[in-house]
Amino acid sequence: MNTKRFLFATLIAGLALPALADPFAGADLKAGKALHDKQCTSCHSAKFGGDGSKIYTRADRRMKSAQQLAQQITTCNANLGNKLFPEDENNIGGHLNRQFYKFK
């Protein structure tokens, strides 16, 4: 009986591990910063009076989770036709998460 409980607990713990993992695992932060600076900064700067980083630091920022951040990057990519690959989006997310958000 104890073996069954142990196996069940191990299975449940194993299923929970991805939720604890780095939300932007494998991100190349240097590449993410370069892509962000090239693809995102001009639009954000125009919307925030020349300081595009205000979109990330404002008191009423919309991003509350890594999943929301990843989805917003995908949405911007699609809406603006930036033609970024999923790994590019992940790199940008990793950079933004490290620089501004600190989601776990």
UniProtKB/TrEMBL annotation:
Domain of life: Bacteria
SUPFAM superfamilies: Cytochrome c
Organism field: Sulfuritortus calidifontis
Domain Cytochrome c: 30-71
Matches recorded under Pfam families: Cytochrom_C
Name of the protein described by the UniProt record: Cytochrome c domain-containing protein
Signal peptide bounds: 1-21
Molecular-function annotations in GO: electron transfer activity; heme binding; metal ion binding
Keyword Metal-binding: yes
Record's keyword terms, sorted: Heme, Iron, Metal-binding, Signal
